[in-house]
Queue: 3 jobs
Job 1
Amino acid sequence: MTTTQPSDHTTELGIPALRSGVELVPTTDEPQTGKDFTSDQEVRWCPGCGDYAVLKAVQGFLPDLGLRRENIVFVSGIGCSSRFPYYLDTFGMHSIHGRAPAIATGLATAREDLSVWVVTGDGDALSIGGNHLIHALRRNVNMTILLFNNRIYGLTKGQYSPTSEAGKITKSTPMGSLDHPFNPVSLALGAEGTFVARTVDSDRKHLTSVLAAAAAHRGTSLVEIYQNCPIFNDGAFDAIKSGDTKADAIIPLVHGEPIRFGADGAKGLIRDTETGGVKVALVADVGEDAILVHDAHNPDPTMAFAISRLTANDYLHQAPIGIFRQVDRPTYDDQARGQVATAKSAVSGEPTERLAALIGGGDTWTAV
Amino acid sequence: MSKQVKQLDRVIIRFAGDSGDGMQLTGDRFTQESASFGNDLATLPNFPAEIRAPQGTIPGVSSFQVHFADHDILTPGDAPDVLVSMNPAALKANLSDLPKGATIIVDTHDFTARNLAKAGYAANPLEDDSLAEFAVHPVDLTGMTVEAVKEFGLSRKDAARAKNMFALGLLSWMYGRPTESTIAFLERRFAKVEAIRDANITAFKAGWNFGETTEAFAVSYEIKPAPVSAGTYRNITGNLALAYGLVAAGVQSGLPLFLGTYPITPASDILHELSKHKAFGVTTFQAEDEIAGIGAALGASFGGALGVTSTSGPGVALKSETIGLAVMTELPLLIVNVQRGGPSTGLPTKTEQADLLQAMFGRNGEAPVPIVAPQSPGDCFDAAVEAARIAVTYRTPVMLLSDGYLANGSEPWRIPEVADLPVIDPAFATARNHTVEQTAKDGTVTEVEEFWPYLRDEETLARPWAVPGTAGLEHRIGGLEKADGHGNISYDPANHDLMVRTRQAKVDRIADSLPPLEVDDPSGRAKVLVLGWGSTYGPIGAGVRRVRKAGYDVAQVHLRHLNPFPKDLGEILSRYEKVLVPEMNLGQLSMLVRAKYLVDAVGYNDVRGLPLKAADLAAAIGELVAQVEGAPVDLSGSEPDSPADKHAKAIR
């Protein structure tokens, strides 16, 4: 039930490229390396921060796009991860708290020839900037949003975040936090995001694959990156990182493949006829044919949402990882530029002549 | 039957009815007819914030006042000579504004017991002597309209809705207005529904014919065209002129215009208008909120567009943080604030000037923002172009302070020649601008070209505007303090002090590009100066004229630039013994000039959600003139129909 054109550009995630997110961005034949994308600024995250791994992955991956460096823009908000643009030798704006998707929307709409990236965190994107995030997703503006989720406020030194598990003891919640956490993937799917994925800072190969698919997607791509904060929330993602537990904790999503996990793929996802959702079952109990085959291109986001609900919202002992959804939908910015182009093609004459006609229109009279 | 025709030099008419009665349209059509006839005019629409307030009640009354004359006038007028009242509530709500002897044309159809009660009338004012001091014309406008349009087979309700056109026809006859443009308008407006179109045109003509034939109206009036300087004119509202000014700024700068905005009264018409002009490369983005509106505009500016956001005071409050970011990143950005009554939601459809200090100081940190204010509806065009000039030339956010009166009010506007408009040069950075020496390990020194985003133009102190896509100029900007020159993050105390002073100095430098102020002091002997800004230009000018007409000297200066002030303002203020500052706030410009020039400015402050009244201002000016002359001032001869002391306020 795929809705997309087959293509020879596929990744290990099983995602064929649709209209490319960078198809209007000028390319270069000059060979590029990660060093070309590294600015002269000293990186100032805490030792051991997951942000280093993501920065390295992005610097390593950008040359693969083959785009002219000056046509790439990173826009960020406020938070530890939002220092990201300073470390990349592209155009960049380190803006204000929560507003990066709004600023990027204007930039991406004004300029079709740019590859626009937003770097944000769980507080920036889901707390103060939640409104802009959901509206960027529903509009489907051509940009890639990297949402670094460390489930804590780092830059303000350790308060709970909107993705922290309920009951979390922090500086601002000595008796435990009371808020029910957001699941960023569920939220993005609820906003009908056209590309919604999740990856992990420490799995460079998976991270790079998801970034490649996100950049190739035309529209708003949301990539949630689980990212460890060694200072204020160390070990939050240990279950999906450590060798003994990760086979049972990670539910890998690959388009077109049965969703199986656990040692030797003993577990799989099946439909839950009682709730209408999805649940985990032993393949031995239900049989291979009952196991769901992942379809990221399903135009209906219901199944992707059901899968996203399998993310643990307390300690992260279980999480689907991969591309939940990738569907083609016209982008806001392409259509906005299309309307301008249509209007322009319907007129002729110099702009100054047309301006004179505009302001001299309506009911006029002449005094001599 | 030949009727008497009387000459008048000016008339103020107020159309008033229920919010659903089409009074704004009626007033607007009468205005267009008067404009094309060649009268000078000024208008004042006044309507409730509710789209359909409870029918027949006082809060639901909507009105439109038009002042037209055979000479140049400055205001929509203090008190109507004629009130057209479509129901009891409209009569009750407006009666106190009428001077003795005023004409009242009233639709008697709705003067039922129920509607009288809704308006709070215990007895029918048409049947007692409570209106004895006015010239009352009770006419069953609705009944005659329904009768006139019955051939079109409309429901009674739809037929009655054409009563505003009947009233317009009657008034058009009374004042000899040309009717062609209204008939053409109705043909366009209702082109899709033939019966409604024909009913409205028929009602309009029936109203005219009624005036022509009935004995109830024995006199019609003639107000000759006003002599004006040569040129082509049109009638224009402030919001339309402002939108045209923004389109012009895009054309004159060669930049695509990007409006990021969120609907808000009374600014939304700017969005509506600009959304029609995509052929000029205009993009309009209706954002999810005020913050996203300005954020997107700033993002577009970063990308090399002319970013604009339009709003009113509550929206500016939400945009403050992004304005600060624009100050810090030094990108061109226009913030249009069509001021309305505040604080908070305040009076959404009424006018006020109480956001000046918000524009000036409403941000954290030392965040100077240039401020430009138009003085009349037509002037909104030039003010928008000027604000864009400053924003682009100096790489700065600029606040354009219009208000609800300018936005919805209208006046004849001499259409400018495009060739006379200023050309705005974006002067994008195209090459690296700084050379550094790099020493290799072996000691050899090479010169390397770099791009420093915070190196400045010596004259303007503007930084380079280097847009993405320009090879070799990759750089990062943001809200953190930047080091002078290379623009990397800097927490250095001395650098911060330097950058704070530099950002202020850049805004101060704008004053170098401003022409000298125009001081209107015809005799050169005035000791009292009236200093104003924004939409009070008209009422102040009218008040000043009355004082002069009574034989006294007074000077007037009106500010377009509120930040920075023009360089000669201090010297001008020092020439006068008394400075009066009339404002629709509690003294915001007063506070600024007192602080900056140590001048003992006297405030005249009125915050009723309506334009200042010329008569009140004349009285206030007269009082100051009396103080400096040490003798009483008598203004009674200057405007006999409008006693100058009627609404005089204590001078604060």
Job 2
Amino acid sequence: MTEPLLEVRDLTVEFRSGGAWHPAVRNVDLSIAPRETLAVVGESGSGKSVTALAVMGLVPAPAGRIAAGSSIRLSGRELVGLGERELDRVRGDRVAMIFQEPMTALNPTMTVGEQVAESVRAHRGLGAQAARREALRVLDLVKVPSAARRMDDYPHQFSGGMRQRVMIAMALACHPAVLLADEPTTALDVTIQAQVLSLVEDLKREHGLGVLFITHNLGVVALIADRVAVMYAGEVVETAPAAELFETPRHPYTEALLASMPRVDRDVGALEPIQGNVPSIREIGPGCAFAPRCAHAQARCRESRPRLEPEGAARSVRCWLRTASP
Amino acid sequence: MGEFLLRRLALAVPTLLLAMTAVFLLARVVPGDPALVILGDQATQEALLALRVKLGLDRPLPAQYLDFLGGILRGDLGRSLITGKSVWAEVLAVIPYTLELTLAAIFLGVLFGVPLGVYAAVHRNALPDTLTRLFSLAGLSFPAFVSAVLLLLVFAIQLRWFPVISAPRAGDVLDHLRNLALPAANLGLIMTAYVTRVTRSSMLNVLGEDYVRTARAKGIGRRAVLWRHALRNALIPVATVVGLYLGTLIGNSVLTEIVFNRPGLGKLILGALNQRDYTLLQGLMVFFAGLIVLANAATDIAYGLIDPRVRYR
């Protein structure tokens, strides 16, 4: 197996609320290999975005912090504990992020050309002219039509899909090893969604990117993911190759998630919503976080927290029912 | 941009018309016969009548209104009852002083207020922020004439760094600045307090925006995030506030001019009031209304320069 580009070990991110620290992300393990797309799925509030922000060193301080013992390695280099200056040399250069809202994630007072060029200037030390040429090249790469003319336009003059392309151009400007995409297509029309997804796919193949793709859309997962990590209440509850996850989900939450997914070949009546809500980070008990909503929960599920145990070579699951009777 | 400018200036026309109408009506509903006030109780009926005819007060209201507007359109703001000079001449004689004072105050306000506001926002809730907020609250709570007297007491009378009465020697730039210093500091203090507050809150808003996070994710460095990405957006409300505050600033400059005994629009208005120079007052009101409408238009135009979205709308 090739050396992972990104390796997250035992990541815990806490937020202060009411005078105490509560973990929003708990003991998360993830890894991404070159040319691999890892989809992170889960409901809102499951800690997907916080995990990505932690990798970028963008956990909002002083309300949030990465707990001691967490490790985030990028191409072997530890990122946890780096100062802002050192982080600035890594982010935007070796690891880049695309945010969810293309409408608000671009600066309204700068032209898109400036916004793409500035990261090239910062990381490659290019002059204004050279950076501009490079920005044009990247905008062409992400297929912004007549980029040469449009790079002097402002974000509000672009459509949502085009803005997301600009976001991708900004992220890819310095050829990062890892791309974090936080629901990049959620705010877009379905047809535009497909274009953006296939664009990310092409770039991954051509540039050997590792992609961490955050989504709550299982249809998108089926389309693009090589592997999937399912998150629930701040924990990874199951990881598996995408096809196997859809075929044989192992964690009760994954099962429930798949059962709640609308499909053309089944009636709406066959949909099974998951009862209850994701617990808030302040009210998670000592046991399995999913136990209160789990149809198969037993006494031990409520008392102690299961670990993420490997199942075979490529899968792992965090569930007492699976580890007890393999 | 040229079209945007024209459109914005065209928008000022109805506002101006409304303001002029208000001035006209105000001057007419004020109780008392101007002619009687001017000539006094002892005046003969003939003399009163002659003055009313001279002032055009004998004609019906709509005709007076049209005369008034026509005068303004020709750029004629009337004549002072006392000196007989045109309002324009009176205004032009003193406006450089007020303009100089107001611009100096805005300059000081932006020069100190913007960095202070940014600093406070970045160190939110820490000691520097608290101190900055205290300072700006104090600056805003002080009436201009009180701070003016305090400045005079400390810097002109105790320390003798600056003259008590502004009377610069002509042609001496340094002396001129020395005379400008205290009045400008007085207004500038208020302006700084104001700009600091607005910059701080605007900056706090902007720092929470998605695009600031995007900028940080690019690894371009803290300084670029702060000054290139955040400040430019944060300045939009600041520009508005500075523009809107221009009216208040002119009002405060009136008080400041009086305390520092400085020539300017303030002293002109005070003189007109004391001498019951109605025509001069009316002309000055028209002038002020026009000034404020223009200041607002200039604000919007500054908006367009900072925020491209306004320009293209």
Job 3
Amino acid sequence: MTTQKINISLNGYNVQVDKGTMILDAAKENGLIIPTLCYHKDLCIAGNCRVCVVEIAGQKRLSAACATPVEEGMEILTNSLKVRNSRKHIIELLLAEHNADCTKCYRNGNCELQELASEYKIMTQEFIELVPFKTYTIDMYSPSIIKDDSKCIRCQRCVRTCAELQGVNALTVAHKGDEMKITTFMEKPMNSVVCTNCGQCVNHCPTGALVEKNYIEEVWEAISSPDKHVVVQTAPAVRIGLGEELGFEPGSRNTGRMVAALKRLGFDSVLDTDFTADLTIVEEGTELLTRLKKALKDKDPNVKLPMATSCSPGWIKYIEHLYPEYLPNLSTCKSPQQMFGALVKTYYAKARNLEPDKIVSVSIMPCTAKKFEAARPEMLDSGYRDVDYVLTTRELAIMIKQAGINFSALEEAKYDRLMGDSTGAGVIFGATGGVMEAALRTAYELVTGREVPFENLNITPVRGMEGVREATIKIENPKKEWAFLDGVELKCAIAHGLVNAKTVMDSVKSGKADYHFIEIMACPGGCLGGGGQPIPTSPEIRKKRAEAIYAEDAGMAIRKSHENPEVIKLYRDFLKEPNGELSHKLLHTKYTPRERF
Amino acid sequence: MATTYQLKRADFIFKNENDWEKVLSNILSRSPQDLINELISSELKGRGGAGFPTGLKWKVASELATQPKYVICNADEGEPGTFKDREILEKVPYKVLTAMVACGHVIGAREGFIYLRGEYRFLMPELQKVIQEFEYYLKEIKQDFTIKIFMGSGAYICGEETALFESMEGKRGEPRNKPPYPTNFGYMGGPTVINNVETLAHTFTIFKYGAKKFYDLGVQYSRGTKLFSVSGDTPKPGIYELELGMSLQDFVYEFGDGDTKAVQVGGASGFLVPRKKFADTAIGYQGKLTGISLPTGGSMMLFNSSRSMYNVLDNYLEFFREESCGQCTPCRVGCQQLLLGIKAVKRGDRPASYLDKLLRLTETMQVTAKCGLGQSVANSFSSIVENFREEMIY
């Protein structure tokens, strides 16, 4: 089907565009940028900031370019005097309402309102500043997210993110008129509502109204303490996102440079979360096979299927709030970050002959929910706080800039040992479908003794950016001990973005779906689109990051988790066996049902 | 001085005729096209204030194939100084209900709603009784149409048609982007005709007596009669049905207290007319030939010389600051700026010339605000500041 072309005029130039295109997109196609604030590619159109207004010949009123479709013969002016004056007024109004103390703002230098003010050269504040007339709350209760209402410009991008991408609705609009604000249920603090800490609101906020709680100074202090041994782990998605904050294009792979930078920052040991991602696969894969065995062979009615992944702390909090009756379906495996933390202060400490209380365990994550996860009361299995500080990709970039490191000029370095080895299966944890693919690579081989029947181990049906994906893998000629799985079609589902998690969970709940295994990542695109990743984000950017992740995987010598030599060594020297007693103590966890609001 | 003033009073709306069953069965026996033509030739325009041709609205909705369609009666009468819809629903609710069934017949809708202002909850029991009567009758004649009441919760903005839909859908009452318009994409995304209470009551008159009887009243572009809610400094406040097109001078002769300084036409979102412009101002819809003509949803507030226009404006702006839904920048921040701005000028914190800056701001609000609320704040602001500038400063 071809779309109908129509003729319009843009600032006096005649052009042809698709029928139904919004003026904003039609202009962009033709090289004209119209400024926006409430518009975001991930979200539905709001048309409420009014920054994008344009003039249409024959109409007295201006129209919001983001929300007005083109029509045949439309004559559009994007930069007429009327448009300019109005737009300037609107920017001035926003600045009058906004706590424009830019030098003290976490988003200084990466703020859309600041950019606009600079573009339109707003040099004086002609309107009356509203901030002193009001009392604002700065909500710092959440371990992940800080919400500062004085910087909010009411574009509602966070509200739409929380509703449309995540289906969580923790953030909402309350009151009206001058008192209208973005808040939570009953205006409770962010730590006592349904918020999953996913940080997508942070990623979509144009200003500094929503930012992550940063732990940069704490980490600098630990690094500077001579008696502390500071260990850092880096999540799979950080290596392909970090570059964006440091001058690289989206989709740039910077693993070696990132490791080199971390070493220069002064971390005593630079290790890889991918290692525990591999470990997760062995533990979780074993757990899945055990559940399948109990369900299919022993006919144990107490076994819960489908089993759901438990790597994404945003997803964990979501299911605790909204589907608490399905908590037994969650894998009991901790996330790779927490497995890593528990091992650092036990296995690693022992191997390196260090006192666990002298170790500071830092993790670099594409995620804000990981900050909450690390602070969960049950995450003390090593006898200490398993992970002491969690930094986002953005915070790491800040540290690199503060240290004066010329990132692009760095020579690539390799991860330290122990716990620095990883496989391609570990790295694809960063993309939606990655855990599923890694688990299938291992589980299939464990059961049949053969590699998964896909070219180059690339299980393409589980890849992609569709919100919910389903895949079926038929098990044929298994090993003797798995004979009961012969001919079984293993049904899998993958969802990313919590609104899609809801779709999957609802079909499980209604009995429509008979999955065995589901992978759910809280953020769109998986961790690569995490709430702690560089701002901005968009479907295109996430696609490029995913390509980089899969390129990393393809470039790895070992691409199956169970073949990770350090994982094999870990079992031999320390854990003894997957899902064994020590594993259960250190690597598995339990969940807490929570309220629905 | 002209003394040949004449206010043409009329009595259609409140004329109590207990013949709705007859009128309705007559309407239902006619074809939708026939009824649309009747409405179009009457030149009835929306009585809520915006003045969109009613016949055209019904026509557009009738031409769409999408189902389900809806008929909504906008009874969220919230404009300061308006109290006519309440009276209609109290005195002659059957006219409104008849019109809703007629509209359903014309456009092919099976469901109708009355969006009742939160403060009008007391009307509900009686209204519900009349609806029951109607539903009984409709069942008898096998006409598939139901009418439900939806209670508003007191927000002024929910009288804006798309905010009203959002409110009915259980969401926050915030106006939507237009296009699409309600006739194409209204309540629950279905084609929706939404009419003011009074507009619907007029269609009863038109269908009963024929378009000509209605058309012959009023003046060009402003046909028919209209209810006016008269309040303020007047010896006889109340609701009056008058022909459109009268001059404000005539209106003041009739309703003024002899010392009328200004009249606010159309409530807080309307225009203030000072004494010197009474003779040149007509009350009706804007047309090409009529000169200065001010539309109104019915609110006519008279002010005598004891009133400070600064206080009047301050009061309106306070109202808008609070009743803006808050979603769009020009309205949310603009209203606050206007209010703080006139206060600052009054106190002497800002120079008198700051009023000009604020006037330019209202121009921006008028062309950039998302809905009629933000767009119309400029009306009262500029008409008051321009005509009573000295009262703003001293």
